[in-house]
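User: My advisor, Dr. K., asked me to get a structural model of this assembly before our group meeting. I'm new to this, so sorry if the format is off. These are the inputs:
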Amino acid sequence: MNSVERSANSLPPTEQLKIVIVGHVDHGKSTFVGRLFYDTGSLPEGKYEQLQKIAERRGVPFEWANLMDALQSERDQNITIDTAQIWFHTKKRQYVIIDAPGHKEFLKNMVTGAANAEAALLLIDANEGVQEQSRRHGYLLNLLGIRQIAVLVNKMDLQDYSQNRFNQIEKEYRGFLQTIGVEPKLFVPIAAKHGDNIASLSHKMSWWSGPTVLEALDTFKVSELPKDQPLRFPIQDIYRFDERRILAGRVEAGSIKVGDRLLFCPGNKVSTVKTIERWNAPSREAGSAGESIGITLTEQIFVERGAIAGLETAPPYELTRFKARLFWLGRAPFSKGKLYKLKLATQEVDCEIETIDKVIDASTLETVSRKEKEIFVGRHEVAELSIRTKRPVAFDAHSEIVPTGRFVIVDGFEVCGGGIVAADNYPRRTSDSLHKSHDIYWSHGKVTAEQRTRRNGHPGSVVWLTGLSGAGKSTIATELERELFNMGKHACVLDGDNIRHGLCSDLAFSPQDRKENIRRVGEVAKLFADAGIICITAFISPYRSDRELVRNMVVDGQFIEVYVSAPVEVCEQRDPKGLYVKARANEIKEFTGISAPYEAPLNPEIELPTTQLTVAESVAKVLEYLHVQDADTAITI
Amino acid sequence: MDYLSKLENQSIYIMREAFNKFENLAMLWSIGKDSTVLLWLARKAFFGHVPFPLVHVDTTFKIQSMIEYRDRLVRDWKLELVVGKNNEVLKSGVTYPNGRATRVECCGTLKKDALKQVLDEHHFTGVIVGVRRDEEPTRAKERYFSPRDKNMEWNVEDQPPELWDQFKTDFEKGTHIRIHPLLHWTELNVWEYIERENMPVIPLYFANGKGERYRSLGCAPCTFPIKSNAKTVREIIEELRVTKTSERSGRAQDKESEDAFEKLRRDGYM
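Assistant: The format is fine. Below is the predicted structure of the whole assembly, which you can bring to the meeting.
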């Protein structure tokens, strides 16, 4: 498309404004865009003539819309299917037009276009007047956060350029917009086909003294990046490159600098920015909204993708419930009682509808009434509702911080809805979290770890047995516990199966669930260790990263990784619980060693090859490591 | 923030999303300016590293110096390279240079089918591609994350909504996602970025002694240089600001019929 390229290239990219063009089907959006290109001199030489010739060859009247309709199927249907983006410019700046379609079927494309725009032109056919999608699009623009709207009353030529007709449409549509709280910037009467009031004032509408469409566009403002808001730095990923642990992400709001004390939500972990990382860019000790950067921390804490870093003084909300306004695009409705995936910034969490306050037909603004048992939001409907998430999510009200105040809902493989978090009286965590950290210091202050060690004669620790099912973890764990107990030490075993009956009975065996299982066990083991107890755990814990996670939770030296090793064939032969048989018969899915991976420790504190060591020898090896062998007591192991 | 930096930051964001979401991720590298900018952006996103393999679909008809340039960068930047070739068709000789296929048919087998073979063979589920909206009309319709079905086909009429940088990262087994971090860049932006970053580019883009340069690179039999005296990146930028011809004007396969390229893309061409 020559036009695209030339107009994109002919102006240095200093300022750019993204606009979306919406309105009811056949109200002249594509025609308007074609004409706009012609009037702004954005067409390359010969293009207009070429289009005229093509029309002639096909025996159809010339259509401005053909300029936009690049795809064969569109030319056939005479409907713009997608949000092609093209460029033009005025003296003031460059514009990107997103030609959003009007056909009802294609609402998701309109949403795609509009969600990326900073301003909107909404076309209404003077002949047909305000139609269903004129209203629906107006409503959605508002929901998508577009505040700069100009309404173009098109096809004025078909109404003899009547000022009355224009006033009538303005009055009706302005009234509609007011009911949803939208204040349009202005209304302009045009006839796109003939170029009236687009680049220059039309002599056919002497009653209109301006502005033209181009003048109206130039009054719009380029949206600014939210640099002055509270910091929101959602973690996109964590990399280990060149011996550094880098937290990568884009600063969505505010700014961040070396030395900032960060609170990561959800999870309430705190650390300090050590460096700001970039590649092949001038080194700066700060970053602000819009920048994709990386950071390293002074204290290593467990953080993963999804966490939002904020300053301790102004963190986001962290809850499992929030109010929202949502639009639904999915073929299947958004239904109560069904689980969906919610994506907010880089967080992903299962969610469901808690309550639906109101379902609205966006074109009539009428509340959709449904029988009590049929609670859902249908396709192209809008709703006010409460959403409950399975785990806490960090978020802001859309009216306060936009990028962390909006979300999408995924149903199966598809993004099916989008929404904004409504303002509400959510509890703030600010004071809570500060208070909480005081509590921890208080509890540690009365009885110290040293006092406990002195009293018990040994420090608390986590003896973490890892290995395949059947390798001998539970056997060694229980034997070790008994030996320690006999020696007068405080010890206890956390066993995988037992924990899964209670604390983790809600978890299955997917990698996520395994991870959560280990995280909980790790937190419990840490509590025991803090209480001065030697906590022995017997979990397959197949993933290196999960075990690292637990290691990072506890004090240095307190985590003793014990690799209980045996070849999988040997474990399968032992098969104390008959699990390998079931796994081979495909009765157990994701069975470690058979259909799920096991990542052996790279550098365990202790390795116990149970094909070579007896149970007693294994236990002795651990005891030796713990330095708890008492020379005075002759213990026969 | 200036406009180029905005584009850069968005592309980095997209690249990191892709890396996080796709276990088997690869990046197509055509050796041209766009995919080389893409490669540079990957190094930006991953702090000097490229943590996934690069796939080069080699028709064996590429201009020779492109292959030399490719192998040098692979060495210098420590890249992992996977080369895809449609050996069956090359062996049978049913190609355009042999006079036994049209240009579009030849692109279909040596590029599109070869791509499918290499994706299938390595089970890539995410493929980063350097296409841009302003290149030609069908690419203007693309999404940043664009699904392809089991047959690699693109359903342009039914694309996923894409809003607020929440991309389509959930997909059915057997399908894959094309990721387009450069979608919103223009040809001019690409050159301005090359200038700003002082990136190495293949010398074919610069005018030779005969007043000709390549504006777009492809296979030798179907790619022709344009008339130009631009010998430096700066001169190319100046030239692009006033040009009235399209970028792919030197690419003969686009011109076989009004919708030749569109059909290729629907079938899975990059």
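One thing worth pointing out at the meeting: Chain A touches chain B through 65 residues (CB under 8 Å).

User: Perfect, thanks a lot.
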